[in-house]
Structure formats: C-alpha cells, structure tokens
Design brief:
This is 2-aminoethylphosphonate--pyruvate transaminase. By secondary structure, the chain is α/β, with parallel strands linked by helices. 41% of the residues lie in helices and 17% in strands. The chain has a seven-stranded mixed β-sheet with strand order 2-10-9-8-5-3-4, sandwiched between helices. The longest helix has 22 residues. The protein is globular and about 65 Å long. Bound molecules: pyridoxal-5'-phosphate. Pyridoxal-5'-phosphate binds next to helix 3.
Length: 364
C-alpha cells in the first residue's frame, strides 16, 4: 500500500519512532509498564503547567469520546446542572451524553462560525443559580474555530462554577495555562496534538474537585474517580489497558518535549496553517472561519465553485500522497484539511501544488 500523510484531525501521521514502540509486547502487571503510566501522568501535568499538589492526571481507555463521557458521568452529582456551550458537533455530542446520563443542563448554542456571547451567558448564569458546571469545547474540530477560553474562564471564576473543557484537539498544540484558566477538568486524547496513536484519553483534573466525585458515576467502566484511585496507587489501570498505545504515547510525549514543547509545536502548526490558508486562497478556496477565530489545528474550506466534486478531488489528492477530511456542516458544502501530526511546511507546499494542478489554475 502507498504511504500517505494524514491531513486529518486524528488519527494522524505519527513518526516511525512512535510506531516502533509498538513492536514490543508489554505486561500490564509489570513494574516497567506501570512506570510508563506514571511517567506519562507526570509529563502531562508538566505540559499543563500544573503542580502535582493541585492537579492530577487520569488516563482512560477508549477514544476521546469515552473520556469526555467519563468526566460528564463522574464530575456531576444528581442535583447539579451544567451550562453546555456549543458551536459545533463535538459540543452537541456532550449534550447527547448529558441526555444519556440523565443530567440537568442548559444548552446554549450559537452558529458554527460564531463565538458565544458573554452578555447572554451572564444573563443565563445570573438567572439560574442552580447551574453548577460550565462545559465547553476549546477547539471545535467541526470547523476549526478556536473558542475564547479566557473569556469563559472569567465567567466561571466570577460565578464560581466548575469548569469542564474538551481540549481534545488543542491540548499539546495550543498553549494553555490550565491553573490560571481555572480549568477543573481538561480532556484530551492520545491521537491528537501529542501525536500518539488512538486508544485512550486523559483528564487533567483539579484534585479537590475529583476527590469530591466518589459515587457520582452511573457507569462502572467510565468511573473516572475509581480509575484515579486505582491508578494513583502505583500506575495500574483498572481493566486491560492499550499497552502498545501507551508505550507509543510515552515516546510521543518525549518527542513533543524534544521539539521544544507546546510553544514550538504551536509555531509549527501555525506556520503550516498560514501557508495552507494563503496558498489555497490564491487558488480560489475560501476558509469558513475568519482569520481571528481560526485555530492552527484544522481548517474548513468552502467548495470553490458549483461544479467542484469532493470525492473526485479527494481521490486525486490521495493518489498524490495526502488524505483530506470531508466537511461536517449540513447547510454549506465544505471539506477540511488538518495541520496536526508529523507534517511540515514542505508537505503543505507539496499539497498546495497538487491542489493547484487539480484546479488547473495558473498563478502569475
Ligand atoms: C477528536 C475529538 C473528540 C473525540 O473524538 P473520538 O472520535 O472519540 O476520539 C472530542 N472532541 C473534540 C473537540 C475532538 O476533536
């Protein structure tokens, strides 16, 4: 099979050295493996700039959605109520979870290319004191919009609410001061900006918040509190963990640190994203999200004309070594190009040349 670069929001293109870690079979009971788990947990706290006195990390089997659900079922008590802020399908997925779990919530939603309105949020918070939690998605991977987390953070502080952030597609690629933002539960997964392979997610949680969550969960396997209590002893996961994935992730974190940490990775993603947007604009592709709201993670592009055929375009580009992503908007025809993973400016240049070739555009 021909190799190609994934320009997708995860799973993404990983390094050969990350993949090589998976050639060794490890035992979940063995101390060497438990040490890897503990090392990962410490490194994640460092990346989050969070102290081990105030924060802890819990790893959870499954894709990112499982981890979001584990937070939603563990962090809220029966009488609690969440204000769920959405402008995309990942936010809407959290609303769906709330329905499954049977949580009380207020759903505040805005258009997929818009920011939540602070005045409206203030109004909701002032008029409904039963709200205990604020839930938002940081980078909405649906469109690539980077939501104004600082502004929402101010509201959670002002009104003293527990703050849950789905930072799945941004953590590791966008700098965030988690203690400063007052985030109580931050969720991400192995196969996004840290550039591991899929198989588990993680939560960076404020210790005293998580400590108060005993007995909340209505799911055994997704009980984040129980998982924490077991893992905190000496790095043992409850139930079978994805050993190969964990080993690969450990390598991926080391490589992130070697690259220069989150700020360096952000710079690389940002440069790639700018180059992509500028080059495609010259070829007649308009981005759905305005520059000032665009994340460096993934970009949504509108079809350039009425005759544009995504499937044909997709196969043409794939043949030349790049896999793109379909759009997720219902009313507008779009497609997406991701920047995360082992992707460099030379790759973006090659991609743009391929697209130019496809479009038959002559740039003077
Ligand atoms: C990737 C992602 C998830 C999790 O998706 P899975 O397919 O379950 O891994 C959740 N939220 C956001 C914003 C994401 O980008």
């Amino acid at each position: 099979m021909e190799q190609y670069k994934l320009l997708t929001p995860g799973p993404l293109t990983t390094t050969d050295t990350v993949k090589e870690e998976m050639l060794f079979d490890r035992c979940t009971w063995d101390q060497d493996y438990k040490n890897i788990t503990q090392k990962i947990r410490m490194q994640l706290l460092d990346l989050a700039e969070a102290s081990a006195d105030d924060y802890t990390t819990v790893l959870m089997q499954g894709s990112g959605t499982f981890t979001v659900e584990s937070v939603m079922t563990t962090a809220m008590k029966q009488q609690d109520k969440a204000l769920i802020i959405t402008n995309g399908t990942y936010g809407e997925r959290i609303v769906k979870m709330a329905d499954y779990i049977g949580l009380h919530y207020h759903h505040y939603n805005v258009a997929y290319n818009a920011y939540p309105n602070e005045q409206e949020l203030k109004y909701i918070l002032e008029n409904d004191p039963s709200i205990t939690h604020l839930v938002m998605v940081h980078c909405e991977t649906t469109t690539g919009i980077l939501n104004p987390i600082e502004k929402i953070s101010e509201l959670t502080k002002m009104y003293d609410k527990t703050f849950i952030v789905d930072a799945m597609s941004s953590f590791g690629g966008v700098e965030m001061d988690i203690p400063e933002l007052g985030i109580d539960f931050l969720i991400s997964s192995a196969n996004k900006c840290i550039q591991g392979v899929p198989g588990f997610g993680f939560v960076i949680a404020k210790r005293d918040e998580l400590q108060a969550c005993e007995g909340n969960a209505n799911s055994l396997s997704l009980d984040l509190y129980d998982q924490w209590k077991e893992m905190d002893k000496e790095g043992k996961w409850r139930y079978t963990s994805p050993t190969h994935v964990v080993a690969a992730f450990s390598k991926a974190i080391d490589e992130l640190i070697a690259e220069g940490g989150i700020s360096a990775r952000f710079e690389r993603y940002q440069r790639n994203n700018r180059l992509l947007r500028d080059s495609l604009e010259k070829l007649g592709f308009r981005a759905y999200i305005t520059d000032n709201r665009q994340s460096p993670i993934i970009t949504t592009f509108l079809f350039p004309n009425d005759t544009f055929e995504f499937t044909e375009f997709y196969h043409y580009v794939k043949e030349k070594g790049f896999v793109l992503y379909p759009g997720k908007l219902t009313e507008i025809n779009t497609f997406r190009i991701g920047n995360i993973g082992e992707v460099y400016e030379a790759d973006i240049e090659r991609l743009c040349n391929v697209i130019q070739e496809y479009m038959g555009v002559v740039i003077k």
